[in-house]
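Annex B.
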Amino acid sequence: MTDAAGTFWPTEIKVHKDRRALTIAFEGGASFNLPAELLRVESPSAEVQGHSPADRQLVAGKREVRIEEVIPIGNYAVRLIFDDGHSTGIFTWDLLHTLGQEQDTRFKRYLQELAAKNLSRDAPGAVRRH
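DUF971 family protein: predicted structure tokens.
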């Protein structure tokens, strides 16, 4: 559901026990499980998105990233703190809803971009956790 301005309103936000995903439910029934990796590589921060589409940075090596903290920002967003130290992205409700709707498409694009640049989802020297 959206208000008159088109904003989606969450009814629940929960970080999974393993800290590798965020579940967000919205008024109207939409609910999404968003992987921490996707949230990290799609962070709305200038560090990732740049100041124009041409400045967007491809973030590799984040397969095992975890969400350390979720900090409310007013009544319109949250700041996610990741265990790699990234903490500058402010995720609005609308952005989280869009990421939920588009997560398959965005993740596929991310994997294609990594492959095109011969980069990995794994951090250099990382041992995969299960």
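The longest helix spans residues 93-116. The longest strand covers residues 67-73. Further annotation is deferred to the next reporting cycle.
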